[in-house]
TrEMBL record:
InterPro entries per record: AB_hydrolase_fold (IPR029058), Peptidase_S28 (IPR008758), Ser_carbopepase_S28_SKS (IPR042269)
GO biological process, one term: proteolysis
Pfam families linked: Peptidase_S28
Name used for this protein in its record: Lysosomal Pro-X carboxypeptidase-like
Annotated signal sequence range: 1-20
Domain of life: Eukaryota
Keywords assigned by UniProt, alphabetized: Glycoprotein, Hydrolase, Protease, Signal
Organism: Herrania umbratica
Family (UniProt): Belongs to the peptidase S28 family.
Length: 508
């Protein structure tokens, strides 16, 4: 069984399955008040009927690292801006920039409420910059058919080009706002968090600090075990219920055995309420695997509507469905109940569509990045894994990428460009002002920075935290530990900005 293929496991998420009814899815004071991150901004904006941001465009160069004529082509680079609480350039009020992920920037802005929540306290200007080749920031005239056509065009989609985009845009924006002395802090979650950390290291003259949430910058080149990712998912479910773990672990063989028998596929279709247009045992296994992976990633303490509508603590809810005594010994009924938590929490689906449908957030091109520089081993499963035992195979990844895109991956490039090996020893000597947040229920935390590197490169680790939960809008139901995480982040950022103002005054 091949559960996870290139392009299916995106860094943040892939939504390759569909849900059907038939609807497809897819100067600062010395102390800070604890009310800084109270849940007020989103609700107020919604009640007033105002938008969280305005969309603007910047004429961006195609290639920052070459000087041939094609390099000077440009494209319209989208960014979102909110100046509601900005103190303005005369006060050198800060600018908070979100380094966009692999998708539509509006989606990420709407799920990064922390920046909106703290903007009034910091009197910050908020800017969310879209990643090239995603959303509406498409080179080659905005024509996706051309931009995505082959390696000669999509080859301009790299993390280094994206970081240079952000640097160029921020410098121009500050100049146009006559805010050249306003300090910039960058924020990001997941791949965006990786970019935020790398931006601080590569462009320290532009950003004074970075909050890198759930950023697996160590998930490369033999730094992190390829078994780490699925081991954490396994532990998430096993911590809720040993029976839940055993049912899921034992289900894969049952699905394969059933699918190979005469009439078995139809039985699977009926058991899992699969729409009549498509049924395949491997597809069903991938569909279920996706649910377990993303439920573990987004095991948030409050209801969310991020990847899919989910209840609070969805891993617990999945295990409740699996442990439901009314299902008896029917493994498929138990799994169906668990899948419903992820795919049908709203209860609107009449059947599930396993056929591929494009996701609404424009994540498709992550598969290109996963075939070029983002070689992040996550597929290994040991004997205790909730998924079938397997080994990570670079050669298999390389073969798939060669066949699909005609390119050879560069598995050593990220560590050569940004570092990673012996990170504590290396960054201690030259890095500063980075917060690495990780929640240990997030499978990506295995590739994260989990220990302080220096006094100014700080790791905040939450035992019950999930994927960049700290960046979400605050709610009245947030547990105390999450409130404390955010308050600590605010305090650290406050210190960065205060120190910047002191240095600015000293050198004026």
């Amino acid at each position: 069984m091949r559960i996870i293929a290139v392009g299916i496991l995106f860094l943040c998420f892939s939504i390759f399955s569909s849900l059907s009814s038939t609807v497809s899815y897819a100067k600062l004071p010395p102390r800070f008040p604890s009310s800084v991150v109270r849940p007020v901004q989103l609700s107020l904006a919604t009640k007033r009927g105002t938008k969280l941001y305005k969309a603007k465009y910047f004429t961006q160069i195609l290639d920052h690292f070459n000087f041939n004529p094609k390099s000077y082509q440009t494209f319209q680079h989208r960014y979102l801006i909110n100046d509601t609480y900005w103190g303005g350039p005369k006060k050198n009020s800060p600018i908070f920039v979100y380094t966009g992920n692999e998708g539509d920037i509006e989606w990420f802005a709407q799920n990064t409420g922390f920046m909106f929540d703290v903007a009034p306290y910091f009197k910050a200007l908020l800017v969310f910059v879209e990643h090239r080749f995603y959303g509406k920031s498409i080179p080659f005239g905005g024509d996706k058919d051309i931009a995505y056509s082959n390696a000669s065009t999509v080859g301009y989609l790299t993390s280094t080009q994206a970081l240079a985009d952000y640097a160029t845009l921020i410098i121009d924006l500050k100049k146009n706002l006559t805010a050249v002395d306003s300090p910039v802090v960058v924020f990001g979650g997941s791949y965006g968090g990786m970019l935020a950390a790398w931006f601080r290291l590569k462009y320290p003259h532009i950003a004074i600090g970075a909050l890198a949430s759930s950023a697996p910058i160590l998930n490369f080149e033999n730094i992190t075990s390829p078994y780490s990712f699925n081991n954490i998912i396994t532990q998430d479910f096993r911590s809720e219920s040993e029976n839940c773990y055993k049912v899921i672990k034992g289900s894969w063989e049952q699905i394969e055995d059933t699918g190979s028998r005469s009439g078995g596929l139809e039985l699977l279709r009926k058991s899992f309420r699969i729409c009549k247009n498509y049924i395949d045992a491997d597809a069903l296994e991938s569909w279920l695997t996706t649910a377990f992976i993303y439920t573990a990633m987004t095991d948030y303490p409050t209801p969310t509507n991020f990847l899919n509508p989910l209840p609070a603590y969805p891993v617990k809810q999945m295990c409740k469905a699996i442990d439901d005594p009314t299902a008896g010994n029917d493994t498929f009924a138990k799994l169906y109940g668990a899948a419903n938590v992820y795919y049908n929490h709203t209860g609107t689906a009449t059947c599930f569509n396993l056929a591929y449908s494009p996701d609404p957030h424009g994540l498709d091109l992550w598969s290109w990045q996963a075939c070029t520089e983002m070689i992040m081993p996550t597929d290994g499963n040991n004997q205790d894994s909730i998924f079938p035992e397997s080994q990570w195979s670079y050669s298999q990844r390389a073969a798939v990428c060669k066949g699909f895109y005609g390119v050879d991956p560069r598995p050593n490039w990220i560590t050569a460009e940004f570092g990673g090996h012996d990170i504590s020893r290396v960054l201690k000597r030259f890095g500063s002002n980075i917060i690495f947040y990780n929640g240990l229920r997030d499978p990506w935390s295995g590739g994260g920075v989990l220990k302080n590197i220096s006094k100014t490169i700080v790791a905040i680790v939450a035992e019950q935290g999930a994927h960049h939960v700290d960046l979400r809008f605050a709610t009245s139901q947030d547990p105390k530990w999450l409130q404390q995480v955010r308050e600590r982040e605010v305090k650290i950022i406050s210190n960065w900005i205060s120190q910047y103002y002191q240095d600015l005054a000293h050198h004026s």
